[in-house]
Amino acid sequence: MCAPGDPHTQKLNLKKDRIDNERFTMSLEKNKAIIRKMVEAFNKKDLAVIDEFVDEFMALDFVDHSSQVQGRENVKQGYTMVLKDFPDLHRTIEDIIAEGDKVWFLEKVTGTASSGKKMDATSLTILRIVNGKAVEGWGGYIQKTA
């Protein structure tokens, strides 16, 4: 058995720390990939694709603290309403940061309302992701012209 000050023990601890750090970094990258997939799914404007994404990557009891939307089915209804109002809506991620179990992303949102009014907005969203599923979120527009 190795003693705490033993060089072999220190080497093993460094290796364990490196492996833990690689796992943590991988989970951060996986969480960012979920956000990218969400934006890609939304930009397809196909409700079946959006529903499939929501079923796979959102917790059944997901809570959006900003809009007070609760539950995966209500999220789907929200996406349906947004696409009805803005059939050409497009989202572009401008920046994305993951730390711990949260992902922050800044996105450009553009589209034309069914009334013909144009929208050009910047949105900041934070999602908390646990075991590969978004469980809660916060966000809103930080700049909006319509």
Strand content: 35-45%
Which CATH class applies here? Alpha Beta
Distance separating the two termini: 69 Å
SSE run: HHEEHEEEE
Global mean pLDDT:
86
Number of strands: 6
Count of helical stretches: 3
Q: What is the CATH architecture assignment?
A: Roll
Secondary-structure class: alpha+beta
**What sort of overall outline do the alpha carbons produce when their principal axes are compared?**
elongated
Rg estimate, integer Å: 20 Å
Largest sheet: 6 strands, mixed
CATH topology title: Nuclear Transport Factor 2, Chain: A
Helix content: 40-55%
Q: Which residues sit in consecutive blocks of at least 5 with pLDDT less than 50?
A: none
Q: Order of strands in the sheet with the most strands?
A: 2-1-6-5-4-3
Overall structural domain count: 1
Specify the oligomeric state.
single chain
Can you describe this structure?
The protein has 146 residues and is α+β, with helices and mostly antiparallel strands. It has one domain (7-145): Nuclear Transport Factor 2, Chain: A (Roll). Helix content is 42%, strand content 38%. It has three helices and six strands, in the order ααββαββββ. It has helices spanning 7-43, 47-57, 72-85, and strands at 58-64, 69-70, 90-99, 102-112, 118-130, 133-145. A six-stranded mixed β-sheet has the order 2-1-6-5-4-3. β3 and β4 (102-112) form a beta hairpin. α1 packs antiparallel against α2 (47-57). The mean pLDDT is 86.
